[in-house]
Structure formats: structure tokens, C-alpha cells
Amino acid sequence: MPQKPPAGALPNSTSVKAAGTGALKWFRCAAAILAKEARVEWRSRLAVGSTLLFSLCALTAMAYTIGQTKLQPSVEAALLWVVLLFAAMSGLSRPFVREEEMATADNLRLYAPSSAVLAGKLLFNLAFMGLIELVTVPLFFVIMPADLSSTNYGLLVTISLLGGAGLAATSTFVAALISQASAAGARGALFFVVSFPALVPVLMAAVHGTYAALAPAATPPEFGQNSIVTLISYDIVVTAAAYLLFDWVWRES
Amino acid sequence: MCGASRNCWCKVTNLKTFGKIALLLWMEAVIYAAFTFLPPVPGFRVPALAKIMIFHVPNAMVASIISLISAFFAARYLYSRDLIDDVKSSSAASLATLFWVLTTVTGMLFAKIQWGVPWNWDPKQSAIFVLLLIYLAYFALRAAFVDPRKRGLAAAGWTIFAAMTAPFLTFVLPNAQGVQSLHPQGVVFTMKGMGPDYRMIFWGATVGFLALSVWLFRIQVALETIKINTSLARLNKPAAVNADSQLVDGVAPGGSV
């Protein structure tokens, strides 16, 4: 249930402060925003649907162009993450861009503490990315002619989740930045261009980790561990940076 | 024009004009010394190639310093919401881009002759490539905003966000790549294997490039100030940046840089 303002309360700074006091209120605020995002998404299923369709199209394009050629595990890992990157870029900016398109961002600024806004939307994007991966990763190995006999599935799942979390956390913050851009038509391209440089470490680590998971015998044992450590630290740093900076960029004056 | 303007270029008695002429002579001396006075170093594939270090390394140092300055003013803008801080941050960012490009180009020249190819995804090359992407994204982000205050917020947020993820580029990428760097190890201050003559000209060049960047920075800040006040006037808002106190002298209407 999206939180409603108390009846008769003026939307001024005191009500914002009141909503910010107490951890319980903060959690309820974040949960309300998460629920709101899920409900809006459920109504149209536009972002999830189009992103999944995007993954399917990209996989089909690769399947037809590559044919039955047997790929090296390193190439497969790279292809998988290229598909995941572009799929993420097509859907993860929605939560913030939608607020600006519907002109509801100022309501959020008034009624919710900014960190709760970030938390709600970040959680939604994490779930979104998890859903995309849940479909895309298995589909990838069904469509591509892959040899999965020696695959380390635990490592593959861990790397997918951590890498997806990195994609989601970075792009949530970047979406908040670009959502207020004046050039509304350019937001899609801008979102990708701005997110990409920050995502390079995630991609590198995730591709190396996936390679290690697909071909445990061909890679040194510390390969997967290094990737996991890199991804965990990256996720923590990006989430912390987003948390620290969000309040400053979310409030305009 | 001469005589009418307070800052006529021919007035060497003016301290700032004197400084600019001194900088010109200084840089000329450095360039002259680098090409003629410094001896070729036999260890390199083409011994005269060693001289490019006089330009490559100081450029990289100046670029790092200006990048930090840009991040500093971005953080200050988030705190102060004073547009002059955003102007300074973006001016420093454009200068940092210039000096990073110069570093890359001199490095590619060196790599072509010493290592055979201009670009081999050496860890430092990978890092600088992503760094240039970060700055290009920064300017793309700025271009998408009309309102200077919103533009300042987004740009400052991106600058600090990128600065916080930058350590992954310098520390993680080189390890993940599995490639041995062709660059020498360690920082420039140890400078083993650099002769005293090279060391002297090297620090001379560093001082010269630093002074040059300060000058360029002041001109850029003045230009951006005019641009931002013009765009504010177009939005029918009062000028936000006080031109009198912040401009370099001579950029006021009717003057010259």
C-alpha cells in the first residue's frame, strides 16, 4: 500500500522530517515504494516484457549468426554478459524516468526520505535484474551450443547474482541522474553512455568469473574467487556511493 | 586598443602579463632543452625516444591533479549549490580531458616505436581508456540539461560516483586482465635510472605544465561563467555567478583574455 500523506498535513519540510524519524517508518517507506514499483510494473508489465523480449531477440540473433560453431568458454562468457548488459540497460532506468514522465517525482521528494526512495527503487531493480537473469542465463545455454559437463554451477549462479546486483545498483543511481535531463528523447542513449564506464569493472570481473565457472579445468583456481571478491567489493562500494550521494542529487535546492 | 585597455598585452609591467610571458619563455626553454640539450638514452629501442618522457609523464601528473580538483569542486557544489563551483568543476574536467588525451597520444607515440604497436591494452591503457569514457559521458550528461542547476547536480553526482568507482579501474582491472604491464613499476618520485639532467628538465616541464594548466583553468572558468550567465538570462533568471569577483581580469565585456 503506497503511503498516503496524513490528512490535513501540509507537504512541507517538517512532514518530510517526520517521515524520516525512526527506522520503522523508514523501512515502511522503502517497502511502500518497492510495492508501488511492483504494482505499476505489474499493471503494464512493459519493462519486464520488453526486456525479456530483448534478451530473446539478442540470443536469437546470436544463434542464427553463430550457427552450430562450437565456441570457446571465454567467448561464451563474454557473449552472455554482453546480452545481460544490454538487457539491463533497456529496462533499469524505468523506475526513475517514469517518475519524471508522470510528473510524480516531486510527490516522492515531499513524502519520503530520499534514502528510502533509493532503497525502494534499488530493491525493485535488483528483483528486476534477478528475474531477467533467471530467464536469460538458462536460455542462453539452451540456445548456444555449449558443453556444460564440467560447469561449476554454484560459481555460475553466484557470479550471475553478484554481477546482476552490480549492474542494478550502478544503473539505479545513474537513472536518478539522467531522469531529470531536459532532452527526454536522448535519455535512453544517455543512460547507456553514462552507465557504461562505471560498469566496466563489473563486466570484466563477471566475464572472468563466468569463464572460470564454465571451464574450471582451464582456469587457475583463484580466478573465480578473485571475481567474487571483486564483485562483492564493487557492489558494496557502488551501493554506499549511491546512498551517500543520492540525497544530494535528489533534492534540487 | 593598446593603451585604452587596462590589460594590454604589451604592458609587461603588469604582473599577470609578465607571468604569462615568463611562462612562454619557460616552456620554450623546456621544449628546447628536451630536444637539444638532453642526450639520447641507449637503453631505448630508438635512443632519442627517451625525451618523450619529458612530456608524457608531466602531462599525466597534471591530468591527475586536475581530475582531483574537478572532483573537489564537484563535492563543493553539492554542498554549496553555488554555480561557480560547478563552473570550476566542469572547467577542470575539460582541462583534465585535454591533458589525459595529450598523455594518451604521447604514450601511443612511445608505444608505437618502443613496443611496436600504439595500443596493446596494457593495464594503464585500459584504465585511461575507461577514464576518457568517463569524461566523455560527463560531457554528454552535461549537454542533456538546459537548467544550469540541474546540470550541476547531475554532473557533480556523476563526478563523485565515478571517482568512487575509479579505484577498481586502477587496482582491479590490471589484475583481472592477467597481462603484465609494460609500464615501469612504482611512482615517479623514486625515479631510478633517470639521470640528473633528465630529472632537472623533467621537473622543469612539470612546473611549466602546472602553470600552463592554471592559466588555462582561469580562462576556461571565465568563459564558462559567461556561458552560464547567458543561459540563465535565456531562462529569464538573474545571473547567478558574480562576474566581477570570479573572472580573470580582461574578460569583462570589451576586454581581451
Task: Please give the structural blueprint.
The complex is a heterodimer of chains A (253) and B (257).
Chain A: H1 13-20, H2 23-44, H3 46-66, H4 73-91, H5 94-101, H6 105-111, H7 114-143, H8 153-178, H9 187-214, H10 222-250
Helix pairs in contact in A: 2-7, 3-4, 3-7, 4-7, 4-8, 4-9, 5-8, 7-8, 7-10, 8-9, 8-10, 9-10
Chain B: H1 15-37, H2 53-80, H3 83-114, H4 123-143, H5 148-177, H6 196-234, H7 243-246
Helix pairs in contact in B: 1-6, 2-3, 2-5, 2-6, 3-4, 3-5, 3-6, 4-5
Give a brief description:
The complex is a heterodimer of chains A (253) and B (257). Chain A has helices at 13-20, 23-44, 46-66, 73-91, 94-101, 105-111, 114-143, 153-178, 187-214, 222-250.
List key phrases describing it.
heterodimer, B: 257 residues, mainly alpha, 0% strand, disordered C terminus
How would you characterize this protein structure?
The complex is a heterodimer of chains A (253) and B (257). By secondary structure, chain A is an all-alpha fold. Chain A has helices spanning 13-20, 23-44, 46-66, 73-91, 94-101, 105-111, 114-143, 153-178, 187-214, 222-250. The longest helix of chain A has 30 residues, at 114-143. Chain A is globular. Chain A starts with 12 loop residues before the first helix and ends with a helix. Chain B is an all-alpha fold. Helices cover 69% and strands 0% of the residues of chain B.
